[in-house]
Amino acid sequence: MKNTLLILLSVCLGFTATSQIPSWKKIESNTNLRLNSISFGSESIGYIGADGGTLFKTTDGGKNWSIILIDSSIVGIPMDIVDVQFQSATHGYIVYNYSQNSISSNGRVFFTRDGGLSWSPANFGMCGPVGVHMTDTSNGYLFGSSCFGGYTIDKILSRNYIGSTYNTWSNPFLRGMDFYNSSYGITAGDFGVVFRTIDSGANWDTLSSGFPQTFNEIKFVNDSLIFAVIDSIKSIVYSADSGNTWQPHVNSLTFFRPVMKSLVVSSLDTVYAVGKSSIGSTAMIYWGHHSDWSWNIFNSLQLNHSFNSVTMSNSTRAFAVGDSGIIYTNMDFLTSIDENTPAFKLEVYPNPASTYITIKSEKIREITLYSMDGKIVLEQDSQSSTQTRIDLPYMPSGMYLLKVTHNNNSTQFKKIALHL
Questions:
Q1: Could you write out the DSSP letters of every residue in 132-144?
Q2: What is the pLDDT of residues 163-174, one digit of tens each?
Q3: Gap between the Cα atoms of 57 and 29, Å rounded
Q4: CATH pick for 5-334 out of 3.40.50.300, 3.40.1350.10, 3.40.190.10, 2.130.10.10
Q5: How far is 131 from 378, CA to CA, in rounded Å?
Q6: Which of 84, 271, 360, 374 is geometrically suited to a Cys-Cys bond with 347, CB 3.0 to 4.6 A?
Q7: Three-class SS of residue 419?
Q8: What pLDDT, in 10s, does the model give residues 186-196?
Q9: Spatial CB neighbours of 348, under 8 Å, sequence gap ≥ 6
């Protein structure tokens, strides 16, 4: 039987230094709620926290989302889910506060061990949590503010509250946190404050960012390079010396005057930042490789809206969510691969591969290799009708789709994992 592949590609005018770029794909959410936070516990299982204490879940990699019914013990809390973080498909935390105006009292935190079927209240000390950063399913940190306690960090060990660190005695919030390893972490928040620990949160040093605006999120790229997004048209800032000094990312300063709210760093060195343009108030996405400092821009044309959160479901696929239920992903889904019996036996090895693959079949005419966003990354005629080799130099690690075309025009497909 003949295999078929349907790759849906849509292209819009993007802005780079030299070329057009593929469009981000809009996903129907069937809601107008403000979407505040998104997290994937696995490549297939993801969660979105929304206003009104609403939680969405996907089980098919983000193509479809549905509401999870929350425990009756949680129902009635007049708050929004402002942060959601899942460490696996089943284990995760949700944080309740107000998305438009965080309060430093009466915030709530819950965790689940069964993918949201049931929830338990988390033990914590601060009054106004706004975020959670777990290093595994049982250990991590809550951050926010606390009943006139200012910038506050709670340490969680084996799901038990260990203690709070109060870094000031006023009302500001910490807004973002990341850890490079179990000991070395960084957090930031209102008025440009940045704190750093090298001893697993036992002590937090105060760093001077030089920016008075709110740090909305902060992420490690490596042990010395750190990216952050701030509530300013300077938008994206970075430190190349472990947080000691900071400067604006000049390549991200554009005529759109963006204000970014969230960012994520992929394992393939791509940085994604989301927010809105202050010119026309349209939702915007930035992305680029930190290694060459180049940036692309996607403008969703959603007037008076903003993207509020961005995450990765794997090394290449990103999701951005925002106001009025908007959800976008950076690549189209490969939506139809006929799994009927192929016309010829197909062998591909090694798989996973590192620098090359060998393909064995019958009457091979042409070899095509796709990235998982549907782009052709390699295309060549076969060296032989029964066996051919493809060298894969300088290609990023990740999943690829191999298409083998035979002399009778039949095609076969095989997923290839490349690990350098």
A1: EEESSSS-EEEEE
A2: 999 888 778 999
A3: 11
A4: 2.130.10.10
A5: 42
A6: 360
A7: coil
A8: 999 999 999 99
A9: 357, 358, 359, 360, 402, 414, 416
